[in-house]
């Protein structure tokens, strides 16, 4: 029962092959025996209660009913600890549930627990978590990617049927690539962010990490759509994404941006993705080389903007309202300083310092304002590109999963690893990571598909066609 897709688990429940309680118990055993450090907390009592409710109703028409999943530990669920991977929120139990999570739970989804993340989603390897690094199930000496490393590793290792992560600059797609799962970064605003701990509010998106493209479409059907609790969700119709799943991509125009295959992208990664593009071509897609020259400015613009937003968002953690409060302070300023000093890790402190600097009166125009202008130019570049092509096909990461500890002491090297994912967040467009192959060392490599705003249907269509023509998504770590 532990290696099923959503579609397979749903069919099993419909056919009476097992109950939701039996399915949940099987996944709970794997979650509790977690040797990857994927989970920060396991909500066993809640999960079994939800599974019993699903069984008592006996209606599995909705595909997510009775299916065990997990949430990245940025997502608030009423009465359940939410840490954001940080000491400063240890023990915090919110009084409300995130809007999209409520949608899932209302369909009968079963919550196994909260999964590990880089602290406040700041990181690309899941090594900045106060709860220790997550191990990649394909090679436990390597990172699973970040910041949604816990969700991706748990799905790859069959510790959940699917998971929900967040993507600010690649945090769903990179872990999906490193762990050989499907990861969908949606259009900004497609899924409400209400109840999700913020990193950079104008970049953060919520999306599924699944075993197949079909599963991603099923999850998106439930979590997408306007919310009265989130003003950044536009009133755009939510289609049935499963209807977009089609093997026929004849005539689909695929652009291959040369900047995404330039210096810095490892040769083996490049060849695997190029082979994936050839598969799309063999399926009838029209492939042509294109250029996105502003790509080289994405990393500096992105990190100036997100660290600026992060410094503002982190101001609420002051040791007074909630979360960690120091035991060693005699007056208010000392409470602030010691609580934050004890509660925040190095990466968050770095973000606060950099963001505060770029937002200061003397440097706002020189750094933040210029980065904001570059962001707008990149957005325009992508809008113009999608007048020519339906999707772009690129690598997700310049290289496969690296070893734990290899880059953690070099922030610039860690930030540079996001060179192929951050432009998509700057443009606000959706992107999908699908398993595209393995290196000679057996490490997964993902192919990134990118489309115009609110064209998730197109991504799922092309991704599904590729998936049906290959078998990489069926491979599991030993």
Topology:
Layout: H1 6-15, H2 20-32, E1 39-42, H3 44-57, E2 68-72, H4 99-106, E3 110-115, H5 149-156, E4 162-167, H6 173-179, E5 182-185, E6 205-210, H7 213-223, E7 253-257, H8 267-282, E8 286-290, H9 298-313, H10 332-343, H11 346-359, H12 364-385, E9 391-395, H13 411-416, H14 422-427, E10 431-438, E11 444-450, H15 456-469
Parallel strand pairs: 2-3, 2-4, 7-8, 7-9
Antiparallel strand pairs: 1-3, 4-6, 5-6, 5-10, 9-11, 10-11
Helix pairs in contact: 2-3, 7-15, 9-11, 9-12
Features:
478 residues; alpha/beta; globular; Amidase signature (AS) enzymes; eleven-stranded mixed beta sheet
Task: Explain what you see.
By secondary structure, the chain is an alpha/beta fold. It has a single domain, classed as Amidase signature (AS) domain (Amidase signature (AS) enzymes, Alpha-Beta Complex). 37% of the residues lie in helices and 13% in strands. It has 15 helices and eleven strands. The protein has an eleven-stranded mixed sheet. Helix 9 packs across helix 12. The chain is globular, with a radius of gyration of 21 Å.
CATH topology descriptor: Amidase signature (AS) enzymes
Low-confidence runs (pLDDT<50, min 5 residues)?
none
CATH domain class name: Alpha Beta
Structure classification: alpha/beta
Describe the strand arrangement of the main beta sheet, using strand numbers.
1-3-2-4-6-5-10-11-9-7-8
Radius of gyration: 21 Å
Overall pLDDT metric: 97
CATH architecture: Alpha-Beta Complex
Number of helices: 15
Alpha-carbon distance between the two ends? 16 Å
Number of strands: 11
* Secondary-structure element string: HHEHEHEHEHEEHEHEHHHHEHHEEH
Shape: globular
Tell me about the biggest sheet?
11 strands, mixed
- Helix content estimate: 25-40%
β-strand percent reads: 5-15%
Number of domains: 1
Write the CATH homologous superfamily: Amidase signature (AS) domain
